[in-house]
UniProtKB/TrEMBL annotation, chain A:
Organism of derivation: Embleya hyalina
GO biological process, any: siderophore-iron import into cell
Pfam family, one: FecCD
Main location as per UniProt: membrane
GO cellular component entries: plasma membrane
Lineage: Bacteria, Bacillati, Actinomycetota, Actinomycetes, Kitasatosporales
Basic and acidic residues: compositionally biased ranges: 1-14
Protein name per UniProt: Sugar ABC transporter substrate-binding protein
Classification via CDD domains: TM_ABC_iron-siderophores_like (cd06550)
Superkingdom classification of source: Bacteria
PANTHER family: FERRIC ENTEROBACTIN TRANSPORT SYSTEM PERMEASE PROTEIN (PTHR30472), PERMEASE OF ABC TRANSPORTER-RELATED (PTHR30472:SF67)
InterPro entries recorded: ABC_BtuC-like, ABC_transptr_permease_BtuC
Places the protein is found: Cell membrane
UniProtKB/TrEMBL annotation, chain B:
SMART domains given in the database record: AAA
Highest taxon above the source species: Bacteria
Transport keyword on record: yes
Ranges for domain ABC transporter: 13-245
Alphabetized InterPro entries for the sequence: AAA+_ATPase, ABC_transporter-like_ATP-bd, ABC_transporter-like_CS, P-loop_NTPase
Pfam families in the record: ABC_tran
Source organism (scientific name): Embleya hyalina
MF terms in GO: ATP binding; ATP hydrolysis activity
PROSITE patterns: ABC_TRANSPORTER_1 (PS00211), ABC_TRANSPORTER_2 (PS50893)
Record-given protein name: ABC transporter ATP-binding protein
Alphabetical keyword list: ATP-binding, Nucleotide-binding, Transport
Amino acid sequence: MRSVSEPRIRRRAGEGVVATGSAASAGGRTGGPAGATRTARTAWVVAVLAVLLVVALTSAVSFGSVDIPIGEVWSVVGRRLRGEPPEAGTRDLIVWQLRLPRALLAAVVGAGLGLVGTAVQALVRNPLADPYLLGISSGASLGAIAVIVLGAGTGGVLGWGLSASAFAGALAAFALVWALARRGGGFSPLRLVLAGIGVGQFLSGFTSFLVLQAGDEQQTRGVLFWLMGSLSGAQWDQLALPTTAVVLGLLVLQARARALNALLMGDETAAGLGVDVARLRRELFAVTSVLTGVLVSVSGAIGFVGLMVPHVCRLLIGGDHRRLLPVSALFGAVLLVAVDTLARTAVSTQELPIGVVTAVIGAPVLLLLLDRRLETR
Amino acid sequence: MSGEATADDTMRITVENLRVALAGRDILAGVELIAAAGEITGLVGPNGSGKSTLLRTVYRHLKPQGGRVLLGERDLRSMTPAAAARHVAALPQERESDFEFTVREVVAMGRTPYQKAFAGDSAADRAAVLIALVQTGVEEHQGRRFATLSGGERQRVLLARALAQEPDVLVLDEPTNHLDVRHQVELLTLLRAQDRTTLIALHDLNAAASVCDRLHVLHEGRVRASGTPREVLTPALLAEVFGIRAAVLDHPLTGDLLIAVDHRTTAAAEVPAVESSGLRR
């Protein structure tokens, strides 16, 4: 059984990273899926992404400083899932303790970023928006870096104390933006964006000051990893919170999918369609902020995923949020698992910050897709 | 309580002493009007007279500082947003959206007030969308991206979205703006074919005179005159409210009112400026 399936999976696993990109560009070429076929197309996209997610997770666990054959990966996981005593030796340690929690955290964070990106773009009705536009991540970074530089030494980038202070920073930024944006009875897109950018820059100023105060090289490295994002040091017990947040976030947003569609057509149109626009904006802002805070507090500010994923998914399956929200989550998960694997393995001597890889890969892909799309106008 | 009476109940819009202030300025200063069941009621008036503000209050984008908008006997503000949207559909002036929606998806948004969270489209939803697509003649475009449509096609699609709401009352804010003449005629013909209460703001006085059963002239946040187009659109009123010189004729083809505007001189040129701006406070 194992000997039959192994070569096939391995071959696909090698293509995993590339395949996400080529599937996306195929969507760009067709120049617009027709409404009647979009549902069928969505089923295909979901099926392909689901397969890719399994492939990406498997290869994420398989590849690394020590390559572990895929059959071994599944056998270790199978033993653990069946509740049998773990295999003796380092394989169980590498697969179950180190790589699998990290791969799953990448999937959860990627799903969350895709989800939040989609929702924030609707919230401020701007396709250039990303989860960090509204200043929440600046708050989280400030909270985390304050602990790194000023606080006691905590183990690893993902220590609980760091996460807690990052989340506290995110909530503080959220409260500040909320207070500024609601003045004048608003939460209008422009007001939200301006308040978010203002608060973000303000907090980043403090962050920069703290970075300058960083004592030794190790602190500086910790700070940099935080600012660029990292999934290193992921552990099983850190998965529950972000997973819960992402699932709840998806449910809350999915329940409002039609209202999000209406909101994109304009505030007046949405009001005419029976949407309580002011209330919807408050809810969206709160949900996306809390979710962003949770994500950033476990992984730092991983850039570009939240901006790129909604765009690619819109090109693939169209703008209806009933499909767009879950597909963005799925695509975000696949993308971040693949990118994190690349970040771990691309340079053999060191691990690249994942934010560097998302930007280097993501920016050209996005530009290419949008360029083709605009040509068909 | 006959069926006909209840239908009439939810098909009449009554605006009572409506007051709206924006940024501390009174835009509507006690507007009173009725849009009768099944009629096309027009709003005309110069820029800034409060037409859009009045319509926005009817479709609940704006909250009034005073007064009420009644649907039949019920205050629209006392209803939930979705319940109100099942009776009143809007075609606002905003032209947003570059977000990858198809024509069909845009029209299907009209079903939003009927749909529960997580539920798919019902048979009634699909039927209403199809009827709206056919009525407005855009069913052949239903798979196209909304962003690729021409201005005339867009307005028909947005009208289809409003019709998919199956409303008793249609509220339209200058729907013919930016359309060429042919598309203006087509859109107004579509409206005339509807058997719904229609409240419409129009810039083009001849279009308003032709399509509307009754007109209300808004001026400085109040209703200055109400009645049939022939009663309302007199040379004296056009001079006073719009500041134009115009002859009012009969249209040689349709017999409708025809307003021939003097595009060389304003009416203000004949009246001392101070008096005209202070008129009828």
